[in-house]
Amino acid sequence: MPERKQVLVIEDDVSIRRGIVDALQFEGYVTREAGSGSAGLKQALLAPCDLVLLDLVLPEMDGLDVLAEVRRTHATLPVIIMTARGEEGDRVRGLRLGADDYVVKPFSVKELLARVEAVLRRSPQRPHAVKRVPFKGGTADLERQEVRFAGGQRAELSERETELLRYLAAHAGRAISREELLAHVWHIDPRGLTTRTIDMQVARLREKLGDETESVIRTVRGKGYMFAES
Predict the structure, then answer these.
(1) Beta strands 146-149 and 132-135: pairing type?
(2) Which fold has domain 6-122?
(3) Same fold, 6-122 and 132-227
(4) What ranges do the domains of the chain cover?
């Protein structure tokens, strides 16, 4: 049975939000909802979802600001903006900030659902849960939380090291920012944080992997870290 897609609806108008949520649930989607920009951003950063429906006019935090923050840490998360504004410039700015599509209010439920389906269809799937991570010289067994080397040696991984490696390996070949790691591995809001926790944890993980040359987990200058092997 296919996994049900999760959609986060960020809309301050209760009646509109309720109508959208009801329509999505009727079509089989799992929904979450928020009535302000700040509450919506918190949910988008800290809880997994497959798509965000984002109103542009929101209390506490503007929708375009929410979109910009989401893009900083969730580079591939699909976002459809919803707006009643007539100016073309708002839609253009939203698309330039990384929105995948837009709908202009008032819109029909059929149109909205068609756009949701289309965006999800062309968006990359969320990585499957990684259980084993092969690398030069050995394999990390994430279920047992240990590293096994070709020569028979073993090293234990902490829970945090395991989840960090799992996330990096699931996105192999893509530079992952420290903010994204804080949001998805540490599950904390990365805004305003200037912590070196990520760097220290990566250093310890490299040591466990015997990655002295940083060929497995590479530092991408100005961006973050990248798992370089599949």
Answers:
(1) unpaired
(2) Rossmann fold (3.40.50)
(3) no
(4) 6-122, 132-227
pLDDT in tens, 30-41: 999 999 999 999
CATH class assigned to 132-227? mainly alpha
Q: Is the pTM of this model over 0.70?
A: no
CA distance 96 to 132: 38
Q: What is the pLDDT of residues 160-178, one digit of tens each?
A: 999 999 989 988 888 888 8
Structure tokens at 219: 């530092």
For 86, the token pair is 């007539």
DSSP the chain: -PPPPEEEEE-S-HHHHHHHHHHHHHTT-EEEEESSHHHHHHHHHHS--SEEEEESS-SSS-HHHHHHHHHHH-TT--EEEEE----HHHHHHHHHTT-SEEEESS--HHHHHHHHHHHHHHSPPPPPPP-EEEETTEEEETTTTEEEETTS-EEE--HHHHHHHHHHHHTTTS-EEHHHHIIIII-S--TT----HHHHHHHHHHHHHT-TT-SSEEEETTTEEEE---
